[in-house]
Amino acid sequence: MSKDMEIVIITGMSGAGKTVAVQSFEDLGFFCVDNLPPTLLPKFLELMKESGDKMNRVAVVMDLRGREFFDSLFQALDQFDQEEQLKPRILFLDADDQALVRRYKETRRSHPLATAGLPMEGIQQERKLLADLKGRAQTIYNTSSLKPRELREKILNEFSENKKSLFTVNVMSFGFKHGIPIDADLVFDVRFLPNPHYIDHMRPQTGLDEEVSEYVLKWTETQKFLEKTIDLLQFMLPHYKREGKSQLVIAIGCTGGQHRSVALTEEVARAFAKDYHTQITHRDIEKRNKGKVK
Length: 294
What we know:
Structural class: alpha/beta
């Protein structure tokens, strides 16, 4: 293995939140596998070694759906411990009996170990089977009082390599003539600003060109728009992050997506690059139709 590899085994009580957990690890860029039988862990380790950097962060869900293989889990974990460049970690999700019973009733699902159909019977049996595994877990979350977004936030905060990248601000320029981006969370219309398209030598240029950018930004209304927009976003972004979103798409549109929206997208992204992981997309910058308003 060329670099340290991380494998997180997600396990615990049925109904305690493993689905939310694995989705959270996917958001963090982990290679995720649901319901992997423990007997396949050694083979999976070989795949990790052979894949290079493609599978250097892996999360696998193991629960009592594969209980006939469960006894082999500790043997596989012992093997992992002998790998110097591998960091195995067990995340055990637990919840109080009352919370688990309530969740089973709400979803109208039966517990996988409840032969008589009574959730409490299966829960008690599962606790006994998982006692030793819980004792080996490095991280234990009790999700009884956690909402899904709160569980997700705990996982993102603990397992992220880069805390700054937990929340990504995507700033996108676009042209209204080509349609509003369907993945936009916030849309700002800057078609009220002076348009460089009507200056002949600027028409073939874009908002990435210094001359066009200076033209767009020199107006009082542009500076006022930037001031008010950045102030609004500075208020909103922490609330979006606290709500559990992994990214926010801010779309800034002019008529054709070549001049004004491009210049302002660069400015808005620059304002937040220090505090957030920021990405810039100029969706329509190359869609130029001569003779038509940009």
